[in-house]
Inverse folding.
């Protein structure tokens, strides 16, 4: 039988160049793997921090629910403080989002909608406002950096002469 595998001859200069390039590729591979591990560790640490922050919000909500469960007839003082307590939990939650560049979109009732930032979900007949004026913000929108993560949902005025 004949040996059908081809034999290639390369010059010593080409061989040295190939060995050198292979060495560079191996070094680059090690650097990329190390970078990937570091990125994974950083992402894991950030995720852990997020979860710990969210657990603080969950703890605050759980404390309120436990109190209500154990006190079916809460005191008038508790009922009076409840909106402030819930507001504090909400501010804590928004603070957690803000630390991660997830911020509410600022729109105001009485202005015209910016359709890059909001979505009109309903219209209402209004004679006291110009057509397309925001009459109610139904659900707050958020942007993450420059990207709109969730548009603000609004109701706008619909006038007969608009």
């Amino acid at each position: 039988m004949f040996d059908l595998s081809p034999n290639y001859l390369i010059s010593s200069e080409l061989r040295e160049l190939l060995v050198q390039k292979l060495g560079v590729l191996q070094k680059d591979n090690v650097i990329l793997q190390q970078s990937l591990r570091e990125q994974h560790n950083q992402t894991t640490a950030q995720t852990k921090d997020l979860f710990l922050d969210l657990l603080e919000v969950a703890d605050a909500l759980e404390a309120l629910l436990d109190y209500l469960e154990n006190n079916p007839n809460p005191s008038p003082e508790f009922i009076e403080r409840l909106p402030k307590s819930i507001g504090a939990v909400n501010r804590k939650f928004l603070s957690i989002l803000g630390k991660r560049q997830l911020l509410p979109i600022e729109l105001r009732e009485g202005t015209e909608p910016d359709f890059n930032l909001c979505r009109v979900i309903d219209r209402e007949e209004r004679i006291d406002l110009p057509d397309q004026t925001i009459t109610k913000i139904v659900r707050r929108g958020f942007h993450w950096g420059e990207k709109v993560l969730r548009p603000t949902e609004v109701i706008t005025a619909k006038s007969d002469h608009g």
Notes: The chain is about 50% helix and 20% strand.
